[in-house]
Design brief:
Blueprint (H helix, E strand, L loop, with lengths): L20 E4 L2 E4 L6 H7 L3 H6 L7 H17 L3 E7 L5 E11 L4 E8 L8 H17 L3 E7 L3 H9 L3 E12 L2 E11 L23
Parallel strand pairs: 5-6
Antiparallel strand pairs: 1-2, 2-3, 3-4, 4-5, 6-8, 7-8
Helix pairs in contact: 1-3
Length: 212
Amino acid sequence: MPRAAPALVAAEMFTRAQPVIPLGDGLVLRAWLRRDAPEVFAAAQDPAIRRWHTLGADTEDEAEDRVDAWARAWSSGTDANWAIADSHTGRIAGRAALRSIHPVHGLAEVAYWVVPAVRGRGIAPRAVQALIGWAFDIAGFHRLDLRHSVYNTQSCRVATKCDFALEGVNRSAWLHDDGWHDMHMHARINDGGPAATTAPIVRARPRHRAGD
C-alpha cells in the first residue's frame, strides 16, 4: 500500500507560537488578544465592513467570542488569524487571515479588512503581502485564494496590487445583506514566477432574496 505524501504545510507549524510579522511604520501582524474585543466590536459597526464581511459582532460579548475563536484557531491549524496592530499602542488597524487551511495540499484563502481611520494608507496590501511572504517562504503553502464580491472594487485593487491573478467569477457564491453576490476568484501560486494573465472582469447584478 503506497504511503501518503507528506503534508506541504507541517502540522508542527501550528504547535509553535504564532509569529509576529512586521509591516513597517510601527505596524505588525500579531495574535489576537481578548482585550482587542471592544475595537473589533467598533469595527463591526462600520458600514463597509458590515457590507462585505461576515464579522458577526453585534455586541461586545459577541466580539469577545469572535476574538477568542480567532485566537484558538491557530492551534487547531484550521485558520491563521492576525490582528493588524500598532506595535506601540496595541490599537487595532484591521485583520489579516488565512482561512480554510488545507495543510496536505498547502491551500488557504486570504481575508482582510481595515478600520476606517487608517484607510487610504496602503495597509491592506502590506498586510496581504506579509501574509504571502510567511505562507510561501516559511510555512510552505502552494496556493492562496482571494475572493470578494464583484462589487467590492477596493478589495479587487488590493488583490491586483498583491499580484493575485483573476481566474474567473463564482456565480451567486456568497450571501450578503442585500442578497447573493457573484464573487471574483483571485489566486497566487507559490511557483516563483509572475502571476498568470488575468481573466476579464465581469460584474453581474446581485441576486436578491425573496422578499427583499
